[in-house]
Design brief:
The protein has 268 residues and is α+β, with helices and mostly antiparallel strands. Helices cover 30% and strands 28% of the residues. It is built from 6 helices and 13 strands. 34% of the residues are buried.
């Protein structure tokens, strides 16, 4: 497969099968070095990303920019997006994780270019599990990092947790040309440690998510949005900040629903 370094599928499947608490894997030197460097140089600055992307500023997710509109991607990043959605690559990951009939998302909902600045965070969570408009079940996350000379004291590490968010099983630096992939489910709790890097350092990655039309085995039929949980030591977040954020979100949703109802009545 062009632009990707050779992958031993049997070895990859073995690593995934032995992973815990849910199927996951990291592949270093994932892309051909010259291509990875092209992408590295093609990321927009944080200021540029802020102008064209969506910025998150909530208790659970802040100082993070997301760009999902592929029309705005520079040529190297557009090539990466096309590669990750190609039939050959989708089939490879489908086989490796043992998830049949996987499809890529052309709209990159929640994915695309991610940039997070100093002071940013992404709390531990499980992702939304269903795209109602397409009747798709979310099954697989792939993240590729483009950060050189990343230091542990910068934070920004990907964490994988058990279903009760009591024990951490994975702790991965967002280093240059590393791919991290994991199966999404009701127990795939993951997050990013708070960024404590210098203000001129930005954590950069590209994310893409994959789906199936078929429901995963054992699905209880419940559709949910992203569910956040606090880490064991985060008493204030668990007992004060997160409940307050959830209450405000519920209130905003109620106001929005009321406004839509009023518009419908006026329209009549």
């Amino acid at each position: 497969m062009e632009l990707i370094n050779p992958i031993d599928l049997n070895a990859l499947k073995s690593r995934i099968a032995q992973s815990a608490p849910f199927p996951h894997v990291c592949i270093d030197n994932f892309l051909e070095e010259s291509f990875a460097n092209e992408i590295y140089g093609a990321f927009p600055s944080f200021k540029e990303a802020r102008a064209i992307g969506k910025e998150f500023d909530s208790v659970n997710e802040k100082f993070k920019i997301q760009i999902t509109n592929s029309a705005t991607f520079s040529p190297p990043i557009a090539r990466l997006n096309k590669l990750l959605a190609s039939p050959d690559f989708v089939a490879l990951m489908s086989d490796a994780f043992g998830i049949p009939n996987v499809v890529a998302d052309p709209d990159l909902v929640g994915g695309g270019i991610h940039e997070t600045n100093s002071g940013g965070r992404l709390d531990v969570h499980v992702d939304f599990n269903y795209v109602e408009k397409k009747h798709w079940h979310r099954r697989l996350n792939i993240l590729i990092y483009f950060n050189k000379d990343w230091q542990e004291n910068y934070g920004g590490y990907l964490e994988l947790w058990d279903k009760d968010v009591k024990n951490r099983f994975g702790y991965f630096a967002p280093v240059f040309n590393r791919l991290c992939a994991f199966a999404t489910s009701e127990i795939s709790f993951h997050g990013v440690t708070p960024l404590t890097c210098p203000t001129n350092v930005v954590r950069r990655s590209f994310a893409t998510y994959y789906y199936t039309k078929e429901a995963p085995a054992g699905w209880d039929g419940k559709v949910h949005s992203t569910i956040f949980k606090a880490r064991p030591e985060e008493w204030m977040r668990r007992n004060v900040l997160m409940p307050a954020e959830a209450s405000m979100a519920s209130a905003r949703a109620g106001i929005g629903k009321a406004k839509r109802g009023i518009k419908r009545l006026i329209g009549k």
